[in-house]
Amino acid sequence: MPQLRLAMNQIDSTVGDLAGNAESIVRWTRHAAGQEAHLVAFPEMALTGFPLEDLALRSSFVDAGGAALDALAGRLADEGCGELPVVVGYVGRSEAPPRHGQPAGAPQNAAAVLHRGEVVLRLAKHRLQNYGVFDEVRYFVPGDTLPVVRVHGVDVALAICEDLWQDGGRAPAARAAGAGLLLSINGSPYELNKHDDRLDVVRKRAQEAGCTLAYLTMTGGQDELVFDGDSIVVSARGEVIARARQFEEGCMLVDLELPAAAEEPPVGDDGLVVDHRTISAEPLPPYEVQLPGGCAARLGHDEEMYTALVVGLRAYVAKNGFRSVLIGLSGGIDSALVAAIACDAVGAANVHGVAMPSPYSSEHSVADAAELARLTGLNFRTIPIAPMFNAYMGALGLTGLAEENLQSRLRGTLLMALSNQEGHIVLAPGNKSELAVGYSTLYGDSVGAYAPIKDVYKTSVFALARWRNRAALGRGHTPPIPENSISKPPSAELRPGQVDTDSLPDYTVLDQILSLCIDRDQGRDAIVAAGHDAELVTRVLRMVDTAEYKRRQYPPGTKISPKVFGKDRRLPITNRWRQSA
């Protein structure tokens, strides 16, 4: 059987950085050439970055992306890689005649095959994503071909991401065309437990296509999204041949034995016309040394979640040109976990913590914040807010909730002042449970440029803190999070003796209700039927509904669940619908 050495480059691109992304593509192509690869692939929109959002509607950017693609093809040839076919994603334009809803030259989520200094084949995503965080129907028009490129006597069908996640289309068309390999380039973002769903989809499509399937995705982060690598190659029977590491940039080389292409060009099916190009028709001689396949070990549940949070924060800080972060340290679990994530993401020397005790702060809170700084090595200072608080109270005479929220807002103002003065970005420490029910203060603990744990429920916050300490011990390191921050009852400490359960149900119960309501979109009756108290469910759902205005003003943060607050979950602020008995 013909053989093919496939180089799958799961790289981290930056949206809009055409020059930097091209440089990365050239560098990894050189690496693949040095490893004697025969076909090189890069992820969805690797040249332009992904996702583009409304940048795709800027004609000047689409034109620049096309010019960058042509320049990349020429540069690869100049670098001595011209004989090596390279598949790369970018933003293109439709060449189809205009029709209703699809103007001439409309943007497309596209890919190209580069060879000998030229673009020899172009394709566009056939199935557009229009759910969750993606609005591709808003930006793009679909492709309507089955692109096939013949490389060393093997017909390789090409697809882009959603082409596999929806039934029909390019997978069955690849079978009809007699493809020996279906190569899909992807930008599928990370979600908890998605790697199992991803493998199931890849196996199913490989069996539908009747050939080996290579699923390549990206790494890194873009705003709220994290990309976890985890590229996969499976046989036509669905057996895993190779699987790349999670969250790590790199090149996975796979030696494949594939069926020979038919002498006659393939014929399309499923409404798709085959667009076929021959790069090299002659098969290769047998490998002198065949590279072994292999599957990288999967991360455990908590390690995977924690790593995603670190990668998301690191990408946001680095790609936006920041160098350091600032965190208000209360001594509690949320700010302690955010600080640990920040130290792992950008280094403790670039993390600045501030304790801001008020008249109601306990001694152990300040001590726990100081202990966190000692354990992690982050920069630490204490700035009491009592003088500012007393001045406001003397002028305004606030009581009750207004008095409590004043403390939080003073801390927010102080953090933003230090941010402006010293150039750090502020990290908001709120978790998903608190954001869901509105247990936060606008312009207080909600201030910041990024919220690393906004998609993490409180029970998971505790689990991640415990995991991080265990991981440190397992590596022979000092656990970064003080045990007292984990074991003491959560409290905002805005009044004497306050604990979270004064205002909220126990987090174990609350998070179960919230997960059903938010992540699964279940209503009151379904949640009650799952075993939860009817009165409590009604109360929690009302808190969730009335807190929408707060969530709209919260900073972006790393998405790890199917429904992060923001693009995943779009509810009106003005909304009188309530679920009650």
SSE map:
Layout: E1 3-10, H1 18-34, E2 39-41, H2 59-78, E3 86-93, E4 107-115, E5 118-124, H3 136-139, E6 145-151, E7 154-160, H4 162-165, H5 170-176, E8 181-185, H6 194-209, E9 212-216, E10 219-222, E11 225-228, E12 232-234, E13 240-243, E14 250-257, E15 273-278, E16 294-295, H7 301-319, E17 325-328, H8 333-346, E18 351-355, H9 363-376, E19 379-382, H10 386-396, H11 400-422, E20 425-426, H12 432-437, H13 458-474, H14 483-487, H15 507-519, H16 524-529, H17 534-546, H18 548-552
Parallel strand pairs: 1-2, 2-3, 6-15, 7-8, 8-9, 13-16, 17-18, 17-20, 18-19
Antiparallel strand pairs: 1-14, 3-4, 4-5, 6-7, 9-12, 10-11, 12-13
Helix pairs in contact: 1-2, 5-6, 7-8, 7-13, 8-13, 10-11
